[in-house]
Amino acid sequence: MPAGNTGWTPAAARAVGPVVLIGPMAVGKSAIGHQLAQHLGSAFVDTDAVVVEQHGTIAEIFASRGEHAFRELEARAVAHAIEAARGSNAVISLGGGAVLDSGTQQLLGRCTVVYLECDAETVAERIAKNSGRPLLAGDAMGRWLTLFATRQPVYERLADLVLDVRNGSVPELAHRLEDALEEYAAAKTAAVPAPAPIKEVQQ
Asked: For residue 195, how many other CB atoms are within 10 A of its CB?
């Protein structure tokens, strides 16, 4: 978030650093992330799109090389995106399962992580139209619910901020997230470590 674009100080922009969007499949990470990056004048990276551009569609990777190979490619794309974003306020969108990688979880400590929170009803229409998500083959909604139940605690644990995306258009949600990031930055820059309590020595 370039200082001056939003009125933030350079210290506030540094406090936020790269913004990483996490959450389940079909929640809108790419659309909201792209919109947010436009608002902020920042770069936007969709790590799934990077994998597809370099290695072919996700469905093709799953079919020819398996999920494990895809996860390795995904972890590399995420690591490269976060490393390239160091010192900036780039917005990075991760695939739904990317957060399961332990190395990725460590790298997210350098970023401000935003969990896009939703429910099955929010994404049902998008999932019904889906044709390219191999993990949702067959009973798409049932598989989505199973994956979400497994991953939700990870999303919640990693998140610095949570954005409820159940209501609102993509531009509205991006503006809401921008405001939340500004508040988060202000709180971080204002925070001063409290002095350690003085322990009384018992006589």
From this structure: 6
